[in-house]
Amino acid sequence: MANIAGTYRLVKAVARDGNGNPLPPPYNGNPAGRVVLGADGRMMAVKCDNSPNLPAGAKREYNSYIGRYTFDGKTLVTRVDGASDPSRIGSDQVRGVRFEDGLMVLQPPLRPYGDSAPEQRELYWEKISDV
Questions:
Q1: In Å, what is the CA distance from 33 to each residue of 18, 83, 85, 90, 130?
Q2: Which of 63, 64, 65, 66 is nearest to 41 (CA)?
Q3: Please, what is the average pLDDT of the chain?
Q4: Dihedral of the CA atoms 86, 83, 81, 70 (nearest 10)?
C-alpha cells in the first residue's frame, strides 16, 4: 500500500453534472472536514457544511464514515464498518485519488446527493499532520 497516512482538512469542494458542467459548490461553498488515514489501515472521514447560518428550511449537509482502507496509488477503497448513513455500512467506498498543488484530491463516483441529480464531486484535502 502506498503511504498516504496522515490527517487532512477539507479546503475545497467542487461539483459538476454528468456532462461536466459546473454546479454550485457542495456544502454551500463552506466545506469543513477531516480525514484521518492511519498507518494501521483504518480511516475515518467527516464532512459538513460549515456555514454559520442556513436559509430557512435548508438542511445542513453532513456525513461521516469509518473503516479499513487500501490505497494502490490511484484508488482509495474503504470497507465501511460505521457511518452516519447506515446504508453505507458493509459497502466499499471507492475514491479516485490524485495530487495537485500539494493537495490530495478525492473523487467519489458520479451519484445523487440528497434530492439532486447525480453529481461528480472533487474534494481537495490539505495534509495537516503525518498521523
A1: 25, 15, 16, 22, 17
A2: 66
A3: 94
A4: 130
